Amino acid sequence: MKTRNTLITIILPALLLASCTSDKALAPGPSLKNTFINDFLIGTALSANQIEEKDSVADVLIREQFNVLTAENIMKSLFLQPEWGKFDFRLADKLIDYGTKNKMTLVGHTLVWHSQLPRYVHRITDKDSLTEFFTNHITTVAARYDGKILGWDVVNEALNEDGTMRESIFYKLLGENYVTEAFRLAQQAAPNTELYYNDYNIEQPKKRAGAVALIKKIQDANVRIDGVGIQGHWHAGRIPLKDIEESILEYSALGLKVMITELDVELLPRNFTGADISERMKMKDDPAFNPYISGIPDSVQQQLANDYEALFKLFLKHKDKITRVTFWGVNDGQSWLNGWPVPGRTNHPLLFDREFKPKPAFYKVIGTKENVN
Ligand code: G3I
Questions:
Q1: Which of 43, 192, 206, 347 gives 326 a disulfide partner, CB atoms 3.0 to 4.6 angstroms apart?
Q2: How far is ligand 1, taken at its centre, from the CA of residue 47, in Å?
Q3: Whole-prediction pTM value?
């Protein structure tokens, strides 16, 4: 009787769940993390739902393909300190548990960013109050996860495209040394955690020069910085391979680990580059601006595959300098590029499609390893 009850209450539902999900799940095959196991970590960014394991198909894919995780949103200050002095670590702790349970490495994103700040921070107008928030936030959050995560994006996107400092609330009220101070605070609170500067377009010469100057300033102050994250929000057919290679060499020459931290290759039309979330494109209801609602034609699929192949060939060439390549999302359906810079478009920038099936780009990426070694 006991055996029969066990069959009904445990085994049958499990079998049913498996049969519901298995047609969508990735068939056993190559795995990104195993393919590049001796080269660099392969990561993805998780949404809140994925951290809470609400999507069983995504969950299978995450565990099969990736060995390092970044929270796409929930470790930003808006989510971690929604009210002044009151922290909400529930989801971030869940991410740590998820990573630990699955033997994955974790990266914190991000301690200091001008975007996705709690509303009360935007209302601060004096230096003392912002210093208090800045110090308390960095110290509390960095200390909590010290020893549990590999590294933090300590400061995110502090630069303008011309390499000058972005006039964020931190820059305006705390002064230009705020970046060094953020690293100093993080170093004190998290002595066992790697500390990174993370930005988009910092492979571009002018912005790169700004990043190099910023990094040297931190180093000259005898403050620790361990790595730099080139975000990698690029466009199909326009990957700046030469700039990327020069940047890898230049950042590495500063003694830093180089990471590609938010990789995606956009397919839809845009009239600017980068990932400044405050930028938007105004468009009429012209279908030309959302051409791939029902999928991408072969020629575009091929372009995407060739772009990813060229990128991974370059990453492998410099695998002694690159420690991690993280995709910004698990599959196309999750990508932030469906909603930005034009809301409601259908983008296809990642290696897995909306059904979590590997695209030709996935196999080209796997193939780079076969062709190199
Ligand atoms: O939390 C609210 C939720 O309550 C509400 O129901 C929902 C309705 O739209 O919005 C939710 O907030 C969204 C948030 O993501 C969490 O899902 C925001 O609207 C949305 O704008 C926000 O977008 C994120 C963006 O950062 C914000 O700046 C993207 O998911 C995330 O991929 C993106 O990531 C950034 C990196 O952190 C830094 N580099 C650039 C990269 C792309 O912008």
A1: 43
A2: 10
A3: 0.92
